[in-house]
Amino acid sequence: MTATSARPGPTRAGGRAERFARPALLAFLLAAAADLAGLLAGAGTVHLVAKPLLMPLLALYAALRGGPRLLVAALLFGWGGDVFLLVDDDLAFLVGMGSFAVGHVCYLTLFARGEGRGRAPAALATGAGYAVVLAVFLVLIWPDLPADLRAPLTGYSLLLTAVAWRAGVFGAYAAAGGALFLLSDALIATGIAEWPQAPAPDFWVMLTYIAAQALLATGCSPGPDGRLRRVPAPTPSDLAPRPYGERPRGPGE
To answer: Are 71 and 221 contacting, i.e. CB atoms less than 8 angstroms apart?
Structure first.
């Protein structure tokens, strides 16, 4: 028996993982619904209970789906940030922001590795657009931020903007997740700056945050066959000229 034939097929392994992953996903969705409903109803106790459950459940789902370890680590560092941000204290806020920052480094490392495995590099035009949006936002909000939070918030914003840009390496879901993550933290920053807020501002912060992490977890997790989707790099023979009328071969054909 060869090493290849000894490995379980993707369908069998994927089905076994799905059996355990789906309850974790359902638990995550229920916790998310409870948290958002609690915020709309002004039930602070519900939020205190439901919010710390979100990222561990999503990390469990990603792990059961065979997601990369860096993805699971990023989600768990997000859980650390969630817990510290529940405390109304400047030091706890900075520690929570630091935990999120480590999670963003995990995401950036994951995106860099994905790009090195045949994925297209992140679009420079998208990066330039994010840079312009960040610069304008910082210029507008800077005077209204507390002096001791300006530097850490700026550094954190640069890191998160890089995540939002680079997430596109893993496709549309991850790209949308990165954009929503940036929007969620921008809403937090406007609250710190005491800008006018929409009704139930915490609801919108958590809605965009939950959607962001869920989309990132979906985009960076394996597909139904148990493997990360990759775009194979073309070989020289793929790029060679073909006689007229002959169909060009795709990569790997």
So the answer is: yes
Alpha carbons 54 and 94: distance in angstroms, whole number: 21
Closest CA to 217 of 44, 6, 32: 32
Largest pairwise CA distance in the chain: 71
Q: What is the pTM of this model?
A: 0.80
Rounded Cα gap, residues 42 and 221, in angstroms: 34
CB 219 within 8 A of CB 174: yes
Phi–psi pair at 218, nearest 5 degrees:
-70, -45
- 41-77 pLDDT, tens digit per residue, is 999 999 999 999 999 999 999 999 989 999 999 999 9
Among 14, 46, 62, 51, which Cα is nearest to 174's?
62
CA-to-CA separations, 205 to 70, 149, 197, in angstroms, rounded: 24, 19, 11
CA distance 78 to 71: 11
| Residue indicated by tokens 């597909």 | 223
